[in-house]
């Protein structure tokens, strides 16, 4: 078993997943007045949750804001309002309403094995951290699920001014657990964003960001396969 003393977990697609209520899209129409069909809604979800890359054509200030989206709440809001506007949501009030739904931490669904894995890691004597590229506070999602007390440190990009794959955020997160990077396992769904942790010596375990109902034990499998208790 690897000699890890702490585990950092990504949030989106790892511990929780955003699974929109179909009611969010009721009445939405494109610039031609046509309702957004199922395919358009699924594409919109992808664009609003993709961890890396640029989901719609951008340049100039829009592109700069996108690349800084997880460094402040204002950039996050403006970047995703732009994505919504260029994804067929024609009405400004509807874009703001929909952004509010997407950015509400209480709208996220927890994976079936999240609580058990966090508890097992803590009971084995390891530290637990949550490290997320995000533009708003996700702690309420953990509080509602009754697992906030299982997390030793939340390291959120908009609070610390760095975002994955910048290795500085992994240094910050490891230090928040009181550990050296080589003592930490990073668990996440993006080889590019989360896997960048290996550059400073962290271990890395990847999970697939499948729908919650389709991934009953993916987190526990990934953590165990990396040699950490789960």
From TrEMBL:
Protein species of origin: Tsukamurella paurometabola (strain ATCC 8368 / DSM 20162 / CCUG 35730 / CIP 100753 / JCM 10117 / KCTC 9821 / NBRC 16120 / NCIMB 702349 / NCTC 13040)
Superkingdom per UniProt: Bacteria
One Pfam annotation reads: Hydrolase
Q: Establish whether keyword Hydrolase is in the entry.
A: yes
Tell me a Gene Ontology molecular-function term this record carries.
hydrolase activity
State the UniProt keywords alphabetically: Hydrolase
InterPro entries associated with the record: HAD-like_sf (IPR036412), HAD-SF_hydro_IA (IPR006439), HAD_sf (IPR023214)
Name used for this protein in its record = HAD-superfamily hydrolase, subfamily IA, variant 3
């Amino acid at each position: 078993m690897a000699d890890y003393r702490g585990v950092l977990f990504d949030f989106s697609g790892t511990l929780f997943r955003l699974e929109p209520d179909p009611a969010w899209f009721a009445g939405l129409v494109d610039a031609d007045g046509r309702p957004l069909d199922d395919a358009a809604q699924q594409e919109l979800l992808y664009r609003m949750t993709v961890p890396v890359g640029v989901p719609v054509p951008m340049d100039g200030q829009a592109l700069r804001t996108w690349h800084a989206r997880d460094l402040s709440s204002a950039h996050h809001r403006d970047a995703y309002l732009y994505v919504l506007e260029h994804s067929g949501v024609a009405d400004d009030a509807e874009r703001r309403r929909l952004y509010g739904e997407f950015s509400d931490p209480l709208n996220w669904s927890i994976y079936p094995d999240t609580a058990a894995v966090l508890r097992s890691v803590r009971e084995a004597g390891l530290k637990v951290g949550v490290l997320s590229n995000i533009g708003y506070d996700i702690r309420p999602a953990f509080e509602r699920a009754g697992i906030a007390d299982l997390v030793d440190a939340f390291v959120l990009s908009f609070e610390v001014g760095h975002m994955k794959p910048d290795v500085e955020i992994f240094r910050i997160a490891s230090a928040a657990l009181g550990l050296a990077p080589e003592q930490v396992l990073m668990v996440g769904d993006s080889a590019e964003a989360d896997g960048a942790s290996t550059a400073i010596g962290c271990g890395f375990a990847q999970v697939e960001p499948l729908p919650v109902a389709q991934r009953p034990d993916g987190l526990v499998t990934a953590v165990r396969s990396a040699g950490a208790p789960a």
